[in-house]
Amino acid sequence: MTKNVKERVAGVFNEVAAAMETGQFGQKKKIGLTLLDSEHGVDELKKAAQLAENKYNDLEVDLIGCEGDKCSCLADAHSIMDQKLENEELDAAVTLHYNFPLGVSTVGRVITPGQGKEMLIATTTGTTATDRVPAMLKNTIYGIAAAKALGIEKPTVGILNVEGARLVEKNLQKLKVNGYQFEFATSVRADGGSVMRGNDLLLGTPDIMVTDTLTGNMLMKVFSSFNTGGQYEAVGYGYGPGVGEDYDKLIGIISRASGAPVIANALKFMAEVAQGNLLELTKTELKAAKKAGLNDLIAELKAKNSAVKEEKVKKPEKKVTDEEISGIDILEIEAAKESLWQQDIYAETGMGCTGPVILIAEADEAEAREKLQKAGFIE
């Protein structure tokens, strides 16, 4: 037996022995970590890398930004990181202040305080789309892809009660009817439904909490640092991998305030989605959603938003409004009211306990509901 063959055989036996000892079979994922621009300094990032390698047996960390890399700024580190990803020297990377292209946003991962449950927040940085509702629809798809990459076969989806939530719910229901397979979560509140409240955030009711990116970013900061006063992110997995159509890199985001525990978990998060083949799953989920009419729904939403009314709607004679009609999104509430005015039905808008409502006279309620349903404002 030649020396090279002996070395290879010895290497295989060593890998098997290590796998039996650690329970980790297969090659480790190599995750890059840039070392610049943290508010806590380079040592905190190095500490995170060491913590990740000690805690998790399925990854090794490549530090980018040391003297050997000749990095004078984060942009230089990003260039090295991008090159290593393109050359397949890295399976994924973790960094901060990375400029994703339009259409790409990150799916964050938190540990909720109510029961210590993990929950994905879709999304937390980047820009999925310039319009809120289409963006949140795509955020749902991205969240589902990320959840499946983590091994959650049938993730549940909840929609945070922000502007656009009801429209997102309505259009997701259409996707579901048209064949896109996913499961809605049910709120813990007495009235249930897939639109989530603050209680659901704290309890981690859904596997995936869908929201707009700015709200998601704020939530990440609150979940990660509510015990530390906000200057040190101590809990969670960071802001997550950038996900988008035709996006071909696995880059996870942390912030300047992220501490070693969060960064170590972010490295683990990226190793997991690399192992779970997030890039391919994103393509698969988008293909299924498009087959169910995603692009048509987005086109309809954009056309509706850009439509300009040519005639002014005349306000009917005022009546006492003693009944409420709920389930209409805040972005459509004025249009719903004016659609009733066009039918000579007096209506006002208001805010109920669970969101915006149409206020209507008791005598007009049945007819108003019928008209709103016919116009597509309520189910």
Give a brief outline of the structure.
The chain is built from twelve helices and 14 strands. It has 379 residues and is of the alpha/beta class.
What this model shows, in words?
There is one protein chain. This protein has 379 residues and is of the alpha/beta class. Among the domains are: 104-304, no CATH class; 323-375, Hypothetical protein rpa1041 (Alpha-Beta Plaits, 2-Layer Sandwich), CATH 3.30.70. 42% of the residues lie in helices and 17% in strands. The protein has 12 helices and 14 strands. Strands 1, 2, 3, 4, 5, 6, 7, 8, 9, 10 and 11 form an 11-stranded mixed beta sheet that branches. Strand 6 (156-160), helix 5 and strand 7 form a beta-alpha-beta unit. Helix 2 (42-55) packs across helix 8 and helix 4 (132-149) packs across helix 5. It comes from Halanaerobium praevalens (strain ATCC 33744 / DSM 2228 / GSL). It holds the Pfam family FA_synthesis. One of its GO terms (biological process) is fatty acid biosynthetic process.
List descriptors:
14 strands, alpha/beta, three-stranded antiparallel beta sheet, 42% helix, acyltransferase activity, transferring groups other than amino-acyl groups, Alpha-Beta Plaits, elongated
- Whole-number mean pLDDT: 89
Straight-line distance between termini: 75 Å
**Quantity of strands, as a count:** 14
Into which percentage range does the β-strand content fall?
15-25%
What sequence of helices (H) and strands (E) makes up the elements? HEHEHEEEHEHEEHEHEEHHHEHEEH
Give the structural class: alpha/beta
Main sheet, how many strands, which sense, barrel? 11 strands, mixed
Low-confidence stretches: none
Coarse shape: elongated
Number of helices: 12
Evaluate the radius of gyration.
Answer: 25 Å
Helix content: 40-55%
InterPro entries: FA_synthesis, Gly_reductase_pC_asu
Pfam family, one: FA_synthesis
Protein name: Fatty acid synthesis plsX protein
Active site: 353
